[in-house]
Write a structure and sequence with these properties.
single chain; 242 residues; Helix Hairpins
């Protein structure tokens, strides 16, 4: 009886796989590895379904473009003949989420380049203002100094023009004694020296008046530039303080 029981016990022991006969710590490790492998397998199996569900849930994109006749079109793609032109990308709710601009013409490119150059010059001017002056009063002091200098030049030019006018008047009075300005029958021909001096003085007076007008315009431009610099300096310093 006991021998039969022992034989049956040995037979049961032989039927159990040897890999399950391990310490509690090793058995727990095997279970953990099996769970990890099972999770990876499940994830790999479910990945295509998840991707399909995400693609189905994602809002479809719609493109909007205008043809040569000005008619607006919508579609899931832009025709090849309009792909390089301006068009918009809309989401599933019809909200614009992207925009492709049309290629710019040479005139538009030139205008853009000019605007960029003006912006660069303005930024450079701002930097010069901030690095040159401490306060707006410094700019005002320099303005007053430059205005005084130009005003002195204007006064000197005006005085010179008045002297030229007086000289020209005297020459013209002398010229009345000679032909062709004199009505006397026996009047002599105007001397060459007098004729040359008349022409020279007249041209000099005309050129000086032009120069005076240009100097006055320079004064006005300079004043406007100083006022612009003062205003801009105040704006820049106000931004810095805020």
């Amino acid at each position: 009886m006991r021998r039969r029981f022992r034989r049956r016990e040995r037979a049961c022991a032989a039927a159990v796989p040897t890999t399950t006969i391990t310490t509690p710590m090793l058995r727990g490790r095997n279970i953990l590895l099996n769970l990890v492998a099972l999770s990876a397998a499940l994830a790999a199996a479910l990945a295509p379904a998840a991707a399909s569900a995400a693609a189905a849930a994602a809002p479809a994109q719609t493109y909007r473009w205008t043809d040569d006749k000005g008619v607006v079109h919508y579609g899931d793609s832009v025709p090849a003949e309009y792909a390089g032109r301006e068009h918009s990308v809309l989401n599933g709710q019809g909200v614009e989420v992207g925009h492709v601009s049309a290629p710019k013409t040479p005139a538009q490119l030139a205008e853009q380049a000019q605007a960029e150059e003006l912006a660069r010059q303005r930024a450079q001017r701002d930097q010069t203002l901030l690095s040159t002056y401490v306060s707006a009063k410094d700019i005002e002091a320099l303005r007053d100094e430059r205005m005084a200098q130009i005003e002195g030049q204007l006064q000197a030019s005006s005085t010179y023009i008045e002297s030229l006018a007086s000289r020209l008047g005297a020459l013209q009075e002398r010229a009345l004694q000679f032909k062709p300005y004199s009505s006397e029958p026996n009047a002599r021909r105007m001397p060459d020296e007098l004729a040359e001096e008349l022409v020279h003085t007249s041209n000099e007076a005309r050129n000086q008046r032009k120069a005076l007008d240009a100097k006055r315009q320079e004064q006005a431009d300079m004043r406007a530039q100083f006022e612009s610099d003062i205003q801009r300096f105040r704006e820049l310093t106000a931004k810095t303080r805020s």
